[in-house]
Design goal:
mainly alpha; binds phosphoribosyl ATP; 6 helices; single chain; phosphoribosyl-ATP diphosphatase activity; globular; EC 3.6.1.31
Length: 106
Amino acid sequence: MRATLHTLEQTIRQRRSADPSASYVAKLTARGRAKIAQKVGEEAVETVIAAMADDRDGAISESADLMFHLMLLLADMDVPFDAVLDELDRREGVSGIAEKAARPAD
Ligand SMILES: N=c1c2ncn([C@@H]3O[C@H](COP(=O)(O)OP(=O)(O)OP(=O)(O)O)[C@@H](O)[C@H]3O)c2ncn1[C@@H]1O[C@H](COP(=O)(O)O)[C@@H](O)[C@H]1O
């Protein structure tokens, strides 16, 4: 799984400075972080809509759009995707219920 995401991350980093008329990555990057973040939100909503319609193919396609745009946003912040994967690895085996119960009270 990391290989696919690493390849995409490298492609995104290379394409950020490409000609915006020939590259979606360059075009969206040129529109700024707020626009990239907006696209992440839109793709997340479209993923939810597909899931609620029990549209399996749609959920796969929208999830790919969501992952792609999230990676674009992280690249814009110069956050390596490995940092996200490392955080997930760190959480491996830690129950979400137990983790939440161990949080300090507000
Ligand atoms: N994985 C993707 C990928 N997934 C989705 N998209 C594009 O993301 C866009 C999202 O579609 P929308 O209809 O939501 O977007 P839109 O209509 O352009 O947006 P709005 O103006 O309506 O906000 C479409 O243009 C899709 O083609 C992607 N574009 C590129 N990639 C990868 O990025 C690489 C570099 O792409 P370029 O930078 O275009 O060369 C490609 O080789 C792929 O590997």
